[in-house]
Specification:
The structure is a homodimer of 315-residue chains. Chain A has 315 residues and is an all-alpha fold. The first copy, chain A, has a single domain, classed as Farnesyl Diphosphate Synthase (Orthogonal Bundle), CATH 1.10.600. Chain A has 16 helices and 2 strands. In chain A, a hairpin with a 2-residue loop joins strand 1 and strand 2.
């Protein structure tokens, strides 16, 4: 993402730093116990792709306003909240190579931390606008539906590509979309970047799912095949099942140990499915770029770089 | 609460009906699965004390505006969200005599339902004002802290009255306070009713805790001693421990079966502690009434009736 920061200019770097400061402040402000867990969740937050999108959607250079920083922080907090709640439900021990809140603090701590981060996200937007609240509330509703859909489809190997994509939209793409919408609300032109955000969000999730099958664990921060172990059926498996009858016949509930999962990952990779899925993600990125409205050259380039970055992870 | 509805006049009854309709709409609008569980949560919501407070805090008669209904709905949705998440964490099977979401739908369903209700609450306030969002976001943050504090203090029989009250404030009183603040935001005078809301919220929680020890299960909808079984130390027990050395020596972790809990409840009742705790709640109600600012007579009477109602449950 360094290229994106360069393209965004110094204003973007300053705004990213401000978002970090603000999140650290928020994590620290609600008692020592939550400070630890909320702080860990925020620190483990990864690449800050969503705040970056908020900024770039507002313009290049973006306006250096308090409202824009709060919008960026709000999206990242909702992202953090969903991660913590997902980990509770999955019983995950590791996220990006670090122990999860549920592993270190237990279910109560993780549920409360998620609820707190969620509440703070809306507290931030209370200083922005009701339009911003509307955007994030809608996205949050869909995230909850996505969480549920993933569970309902668990262990169902026969799930369709369409249903898989609908789940990715609810689980992931809506928050990328919200990031773009929130930025656009603070832009001069208010041009809609929602379809762009949704498209790259979908691509992002597909690539995440590809990396779960074929990504190097030392880079992704989690063991390969984690999705298989919790019954999440993703695009690489769906494609591989249509190519390999043995995979098509596999009962996912029999995949229990990390070694089993690693073997199934090898078998999926042998069908070439991860490459096909990655191609699908690249198509989505190209499509997303084509939906960009007329924008100033620097803003367009920066957004295109983010889009490319989404599918170039560990390529 | 019939007396309160009478005091509030027809406008309040119409507004209460509108809140019900709106909540039913919201529950139904997010797919059939969530419709069932969100609907059950909302239906199990009890007396709608918080929406009623929103309305009465706005004036008597209250302005019959869309904004006021949405504010009332938002508070009740946050209340519902916290109940569902609490049930997940407690593993409760029954709430007000009905099976909980976690009992019928499992942890995933309950977590997702809670997250959804929470998101919809803020979506409602996106049609009200940023000030309203600020009020509810602050309350939600404190609710999450309260949830956590309850857990941290679990099984600690030696917890102080002060700490118990601080927990009640975070767990319960802040939402009563928010209801009053939200109503006041839509009132002509904007007079602050926050201390009143907080006071009756505290009293409400204390009375809930009294009823858990001495309330008739057929009225409260849950077995006696539920708090004891999940390690929640409440005012009746704190007071009883200072009066009965055997209770003071009791290791709460040994109270495991409903029969044990019922016996401990008897013993607490024998010390007279529930009556003392109820007295404390009544004092808080009297204090809360004394904080009421200068208000039109009808509004003051209606709010006083609500306050009295809080401690007159099953008296």
């Amino acid at each position: 993402m360094q290229a994106v920061l360069d393209a965004g200019g110094e204003a973007v770097s300053r705004l990213m730093a401000q978002a970090e400061l603000r999140m650290a402040e928020l994590a620290a402000g609600h008692g020592p116990v939550l400070a630890r867990y909320a702080g860990e969740t925020i620190a483990a937050g990864g690449k800050r792709l969503r705040p970056l999108l908020v900024y770039l959607a507002a313009g290049v250079p973006p306006p250096e306003t308090d409202a824009l920083v709060r919008a960026a922080v709000a999206v990242e907090l909702v992202h953090g909240a969903t991660l913590v709640h997902d980990d509770v439900l999955d019983g995950s021990d590791l996220r990006r190579g670090r122990p999860t809140v549920v592993a270190t603090g237990g279910r109560w701590m993780a549920t409360a931390t998620g609820d707190l981060l969620f509440a703070r996200a809306f507290a931030e937007l209370a200083h922005v606008s009701v339009a911003a609240v509307r955007v994030l509330a809608r996205a949050s509703t869909e995230l909850a539906r996505g969480e549920l859909m993933q569970r309902r489809d668990a262990w169902k190997a026969e799930v369709s590509v369409e249903r898989y994509l609908a789940r990715c939209r609810l689980k992931t793409a809506v928050l990328f979309r919200a990031a773009c919408e929130l930025g656009a609300l603070e832009s001069a032109s208010r041009a809609s970047l929602a379809p762009f955000g949704e498209g790259i969000g979908l691509a992002f999730q597909i690539l995440d799912d590809v990396l779960d099958v074929s990504g190097p664990p030392e880079r992704t921060g989690k063991p390969r095949g984690a999705d298989l172990l919790d019954g999440t059926v993703t695009l690489p498996l769906i494609i591989a099942r249509s190519r390999d009858p043995e995979l098509a016949a596999l009962d996912l509930r029999t995949v229990r140990a990390p070694d089993d999962a690693a073997r199934v990952c090898e078998r999926i990779a042998a069908t070439g499915a991860p490459g096909v899925a990655r191609g699908r993600a690249m198509d989505l990125v190209a499509e997303a770029k084509s939906t960009l409205p007329s924008l100033p050259g620097r803003q367009r380039s920066a957004l295109e770089l983010v889009a490319d970055g989404v599918v170039e992870r560990y390529a």
